[in-house]
Design brief:
Immunoglobulin-like; 10-stranded antiparallel beta sheet; about 45% strand
Length: about 150
């Protein structure tokens, strides 16, 4: 599906909200803060809703490097820590309860950071500012609720 088929719902500080009617899905997304460290991928954080699959506000991280399979991936939001699950360059909440906790924490914090070790054992982290995240998540959720 070409990017032009996605409908922009708005930009909220560093977060954008989009609707993809062909799937259908809606999501809020932000690129990680820039840094000078080595990257294998362009890291982003996304919160997606797929109404036909009955999936709502699911967090997904694309990490800047492929994480080591036997090492923890940790998300820090304010004073809260969440163990993520993942593989390769992707990470998600370990369960629905953690996903809900992450989304709630994102609404009240100013930033978040994912830390892991890459496949060569080197530590790395990716960070996001959360200004606009709540508005972008709400815009995406409303767009998919209307789409039914």
């Amino acid at each position: 599906m070409p990017a032009a088929a996605r409908e922009s719902l708005g930009l909220y500080s560093g977060w954008g909200a989009f609707r993809d009617p062909a799937t259908p899905r809606c999501y809020a997304i932000a690129m990680a803060e820039p840094n000078a460290r080595e990257r294998e991928h362009q890291p982003f954080a996304a919160v997606g809703t797929w109404p036909k699959r009955n999936v709502r506000t699911q967090i997904h991280f694309r990490l800047s490097r492929r994480s080591a399979a036997d090492r923890p991936i940790v998300l820090a939001i304010g004073d809260r820590r969440f163990a993520l699950t993942g593989g390769g360059g992707d990470a998600w909440a370990a369960n629905n309860s953690d996903n809900a906790g992450i989304i709630a924490a994102m609404r009240s914090a100013s930033s978040m950071r994912v830390s892991a070790r890459d496949q060569r054992g080197r530590p790395f982290s990716d960070g996001w500012m959360l200004a606009g995240a709540a508005s972008a998540m709400d815009a995406a959720a409303i767009a998919c609720a209307r789409a039914g």
